[in-house]
Write a structure and sequence with these properties.
globular; alpha/beta; 3 domains; single chain; Rossmann fold; 5-stranded parallel beta sheet
C-alpha cells in the first residue's frame, strides 16, 4: 500500500515540548514509511489569527494531506483556548472544505481527568467538518514509558493507517447542531428578588448589545434587587492564554503575575462572590475561545478547589440541549471546584415570556441557596474527579504540584483515603475473614438488606 501523508495539528502551547507530541514522534519512528508533519497550532495561534497568509499555509497542509491527527493535552476539561480559537477560525474563514473527507483521529495525554469530554468535543468538530473520524487515543501521560503503553500506541497507529489506506467506512456520531431563529424580547421583572447582602457577579462575553445573550444578562441583573457586578470578560486585561509552564505548581504564582490583571480580578471578584452567573453564546460545540482562555487561566490555582460553597448559574445562548457534552463539562468543572450548580437556562425555549420566567427563577434559586448555605452533593463527576486529583497529588505529582499537596493536606482531602479510616481497616482485617466463613455467611446474607437501612431508619426516627 502507498505511504500516508499525515498532518498533525498540535494543540499544545508548549510546541515540541508537548508530551502528546512524543507519542506522535514514536509513531513516526515505528512507521517510517509514512510522513507525520507536525504543525504547532496552539503555539502559533495569534499569528494564525493575525496573519492570513500563515493561516492559509496551515490550511493548504491540511488540504494536501491524506489524513489529519488532532493531538493535544487537556486544559480544563477540553482543549487549550488557542486550539479552540483555531477551530473557530476554520469556520469563520469558511475553509471547512480542506478538512472534508479526510480521515482523522484524536490523540491526547493526561491523567484521565475528563479526557472523554475533550475527545467528544474534537470528534464532534470533525463530524461538523465532514471528516472521517476513525478513533480516539487517550493514554495516561506516562504510558509511553511502559511496554504496554507503547504496544497500545502502535496498535492505535496501525489501525488508523489501515483505515486510511483501505478507505474504511466511518459513521458520523454527533448530529449537526440546529440553531433556533429567535429574537428574545425581555420584559421587566415585576418582583426582583433581594440580594440579601450576598455578592452577585455576572460574567459574560457578549459584544453586541442587541443579542439574545446581552438581553439575558440584563434580565438576570434586573431580577436582583441589590448590588450586582456585571463584567464582560472581553474587557478584562488578559495578556494571553495559559502557557502550561507550571510556574504556578509550587506556590500558585502564575507566569503572568504582574503582567496582566486576570489574577487580581479572579481573586478579588470571582473568588469572593456568593453567586456567580456564567453567561455565554455557544460557538461550535462549546462557548467562545475567550471563555476557554478565561477558564484556562484559572489554572494558576492548579488543582485546588477555590469556589467552595458558591452558587453557580449558567446562562447560554445556543443549542445547549443538543450538546450534553458541554453540560457535562460545566457540571464536572464546578463540582470539583466545590461549587453548587443551581441551574442552567438557554434561549432554546423560543418564547420570551417563558425565558423571562426561567431567568427570574434561576436568580431566585441562586440567592435562596446562597442564603440557606445549600450546596448540592457531588455526583460521580465531582467525586470521581476529585479522587483522581487526590491520588495523583499524593503520589506521582506531589513533587511538582507542592501547592496542591499542601492544600489537600490542610483541607482534609487526604483523609478520604480508605486506609486512613481506622474503623474500616479493623473491620476489613478482622471482621471480613470471620463473616466470610461459610456457616456465618449463610446467616449474614439475609441480614444485609435490613442492616443497610437500620441506621437510616434511626436517623429518620429522631425527627
Amino acid at each position: 500500500m502507498s505511504p500516508v501523508n499525515i498532518t498533525v495539528l498540535n494543540g499544545s502551547p508548549k510546541g515540541e515540548l508537548s508530551v502528546t507530541m512524543q507519542s506522535v514522534a514514536y509513531l513516526a519512528k515505528h512507521f517510517p514509511e509514512h510522513t507525520f508533519d507536525v504543525l504547532h497550532i496552539a503555539q502559533r495561534a495569534k499569528r494564525l489569527e493575525n496573519n492570513r497568509e500563515e493561516f492559509d499555509q496551515v490550511i493548504d497542509k491540511v488540504r494536501d494531506a491524506d489524513a489529519v491527527i488532532w493531538g493535544f493535552p487537556l486544559y480544563i476539561l477540553l482543549v487549550h483556548g488557542n486550539y479552540k480559537r483555531f477551530i473557530e477560525l476554520v469556520f469563520e474563514r469558511d475553509v471547512q472544505d480542506a478538512f472534508a473527507g479526510k480521515y482523522t483521529a484524536a490523540m491526547s495525554t493526561s491523567i484521565h481527568y475528563f479526557d472523554h469530554t475533550a475527545h467528544n468535543y474534537i470528534h464532534g468538530i470533525c463530524d461538523d467538518l465532514g471528516m472521517r473520524f476513525v478513533d480516539s487515543f487517550a493514554p495516561d501521560m506516562h504510558d509511553l514509558l511502559g511496554e504496554e503503553g507503547r504496544a497500545q500506541l502502535i496498535g492505535f497507529g496501525r489501525q488508523f493507517l489501515d483505515a486510511v489506506q483501505t478507505q474504511a467506512p466511518t459513521q458520523r456520531r454527533f448530529p449537526p447542531l440546529s440553531r433556533r431563529e429567535f429574537a428574545y424580547q425581555p420584559g421587566l421583572p415585576s418582583h426582583p428578588v433581594s440580594s440579601g447582602g450576598k455578592k452577585v457577579v455576572i460574567l459574560h462575553d457578549e459584544q453586541s448589545s442587541d443579542s439574545n445573550l446581552a438581553k439575558m444578562v440584563a434580565r438576570c441583573r434586573a431580577a436582583v434587587d441589590g448590588d450586582v457586578t456585571v463584567v464582560n470578560i472581553r474587557d478584562l486585561d488578559i495578556k494571553a492564554g495559559c502557557q502550561g509552564c507550571l510556574e504556578c505548581a509550587a506556590k500558585y504564582r502564575c507566569f503572568y503575575t504582574g503582567k496582566d490583571a486576570f489574577i487580581d480580578f479572579y481573586g478579588s471578584i470571582v473568588m469572593t462572590a456568593d453567586v456567580l452567573v456564567y453567561a455565554g453564546t455557544m460557538v461550535d460545540r462549546y462557548l467562545s475561545a475567550r471563555w476557554k482562555t478565561f477558564f484556562d487561566r484559572t489554572f494558576f490555582n492548579t488543582h485546588t478547589p477555590v469556589l467552595v460553597g458558591k452558587q453557580v448559574a449558567l446562562v447560554v445562548s445556543g443549542p445547549l440541549g443538543q450538546t450534553p457534552n458541554l453540560m457535562e463539562i460545566f457540571d464536572g468543572y464546578f463540582q470539583y471546584q466545590g461549587a453548587s450548580v443551581v441551574g442552567v437556562v438557554s434561549d432554546e425555549t423560543g418564547d420570551s415570556a417563558e425565558l423571562d420566567r426561567l431567568l427570574d427563577g434561576l436568580m431566585k434559586r441562586a440567592l435562596a441557596s446562597a442564603q440557606a448555605g445549600y450546596v448540592h452533593p457531588q455526583t460521580f463527576l465531582g467525586a470521581a474527579g476529585m479522587k483522581v486529583f487526590r491520588d495523583d497529588m499524593y503520589g506521582r505529582l506531589r513533587v511538582i504540584f507542592a501547592a496542591d499537596h499542601n492544600a489537600y493536606r490542610r483541607s482534609g482531602i487526604y483523609k478520604t483515603f480508605p486506609q486512613r479510616q481506622l474503623g474500616t481497616r479493623m473491620l476489613n482485617t478482622f471482621g471480613a475473614p470471620i463473616i466470610n466463613l461459610p456457616p456465618i455467611r449463610k446467616k449474614f446474607d439475609p441480614m444485609i438488606k435490613p442492616q443497610m437501612v437500620s441506621s437510616h431508619k434511626k436517623a429518620v426516627a429522631k425527627y
